[in-house]
Amino acid sequence: MKLLQSLSVTISLVSLVAISACSTTESKQNSSEVKVATNTTTTATTNHNGHSSHQQKININNAILSELDKLEAKLGIPALSNKIQASRPYANVEELVSKQVISQAEFDKIKDMVTIEDIVLTGEAKDVDYMTKLGLMKGHLLVAKELLDKQQPKQAEPHIGHPVEEIYVDVEDQLNERNVKEFKTTLITLQDLVKSKPKDTKIATEFTNSMQAVDSAIQGIPETQRNSPEFVLKVINGLLDAANSEYGAAIANGKISAAIEYQDSRGFVNYANTLYKGIAAQVAKQNPEAHKAIETSMTELRKAWPDATPPAAPVLTPVQVSQLVKTIEQNSQKITR
């Protein structure tokens, strides 16, 4: 994926921020306060799975690339995410047309998905957003490690760069709020080393340091939440939402035309699978049927990425991937409601 300049990840994803990810009535337990640039304040109540009844719009001025990829997948325009990012800032969403990023007809298809208003998350929605963004970092690094192990440093480098270049700025304020030690320097050190000395033996050590730094940041979430199936499933849905967008952006004319997006989505799905394994026993106990559906769908979903190197032809179509992601989300609702 190209990633990030902002994600409200997924939570678009979950509050969803995705990524991922409600009605306008208040919910005492699951509500997030939304402040827009006009200084007006509304309350978007979340439903049982943490998504808003009206999916949070994508801020074209600061959304990370994984969020912008939703627009790319929707319109089927290769590299649209980069084009949107390159034409920032926007005084209004209509400038997507006036700046010749997309046509009027294309804009009409996504106008209800975009905004230039800032959204401030609070409560659990904020925690889900934070954890989802860190999960995206983990996914990038995991696929980077696979590529490094294959002696493919040039392919690995973008995935090492995305966490620091696109995601870190989006989570930095929360890191400070949660008293998490700065680790941007650690990520940059790894990135620079892979770029300049791809065969340096120190890369393994710096990679470990980077992964540990992200893991330490995750500790900024209370342990009770990190072990809660309800909370973790919302994060998983955010990651899968981002993966779905990335996979859709990777496929064009029945072929994998964008290896980076394919690899991004692989990393996100693999980390989502790891998170699910950590709560699987609890989910199975709460709802055996939902657990079986999630586990089966996750197994099928992962078949879309047989290797970090893209296959000659897609194993699953974007439609099939979307359906599996939807099945997982629907069954997650049986736990998160």
Structure description:
The longest helix is centred in the C-terminal third of the chain and has 28 residues, at 259-286. Strands 1-2 form a two-stranded antiparallel sheet. The chain has a two-stranded parallel ribbon with strand order 3-4. Residues 1-54 have low confidence and may be disordered. The chain is built from 14 helices and six strands. β5 and β6 form a beta hairpin. α6 packs across α11 and α6 crosses α12. The chain is mainly α and 337 residues long. The chain folds into three domains: 58-115, Orthogonal Bundle (DNA polymerase, domain 1); 123-221, Four Helix Bundle (Hemerythrin (Met), subunit A), CATH 1.20.120; 223-336.
Explain briefly what this protein structure is.
This protein is mostly helical.
- The amount of helix comes to 55-70%
Q: How many structural domains does the protein architecture include?
A: 3
Shape: globular
How do the helices and strands follow one another from N- to C-terminus?
HEEEHHHHEHHHHHHEEHHH
Strand order of the largest sheet: 1-2
Radius of gyration: 19 Å
For the largest beta-sheet, the strand count, sense and barrel status come to: 2 strands, antiparallel
Distance between the termini: 31 Å
Mean pLDDT: 84
